[in-house]
TrEMBL record:
Chain intervals with Basic residues compositional bias: 1-10
Descriptive protein name: DUF3615 domain-containing protein
Residue ranges constituting the DUF3615 domain according to the UniProt record: 145-250
Species annotation: Miscanthus lutarioriparius
Upper classification of the organism: Eukaryota, Viridiplantae, Streptophyta, Embryophyta, Tracheophyta
Region (Disordered): 1-31
Amino acid sequence: MPPHRRSRRLRGQESGEECSRSSCREDKEREAAQTQSEALVQVWEPSSPPVSCIWERLWRDWGRRFCIRLDRQGCFHTYPDVGGPFQSLPETYEAIDRYLEDLRDPKMCAEEDKAIIQRLYWPDGTIKRRTRGPVTEKSEMCQMVQALVDKYNEDHNLLEGLAHELKDVLHYNSICEKQKWYYHLNFTAKIKGAGPNECNLDNLFFVEVKCMPQAKFTELLPNCFCRVNLNDNGQCYGCTRDGDVGMKHPSSSVGYTAGHMNVGLPSGYFGKWKRDYEDEEDDDKYVKAREAELRQMFKYREAVKTEEAKAGDGLRGK
């Protein structure tokens, strides 16, 4: 067949073939997502009685962590709240994606500027070095604890009138022991009295959460969820080693798993090499210094490409 005739035939089929491939790919993605959702429900929801589960997932492009809770009715709840409850995991993902897209900062710029901005900022315009600051970290911990409290209320049939109400997260620490990660947290919650004359009081709680990686998720398993008081002084080498001496653990240490082994080094023991500007507290100065470094890097890359192109032309000339 002559090349020009073959080309016309392919162009005539191109649109239909592309649509077919795209449709097939989308169908496979939806099917895979639905299969994953059904598999998660089957794996994590016991047959009798059903127990809710909590997962944590990082949206890496945004630097945001979301907790997803599966309740006894098979519905999915998100922390922070992006709507719902949702009937499937793909539906939950779509809602989170929409929530994040609404936060996107619509900046149009040159390719180099765009690449620099992507290295300096998250899509919502937040400076990347600030996302792991104390305020953001505590906000994420509050979302996690809220999911744990909601799970506790549901598992213990504490309805609206008796449900525990989260007030504040006071302490939180992560511990690595025997190649497993745990969270230890102290928070206050209001316990509503069962009788009409009983007072609503703020109570101090301790919770230990075991982190179980599952593909893209990390399941959060509460090993211990109990009230503590200011006199409780359960031993935890993990928290004291990291300097959190204010964390209250149950006096009966059999309730929690991590922290009984005096091993390892304090958090941050190994020094991290830093550039001079990384300790700069002023955001504008930090951004300018980081941007100058990135532009110098791109300039160097372009110079290397130019030299390589010249060398290639010289070889072809010979």
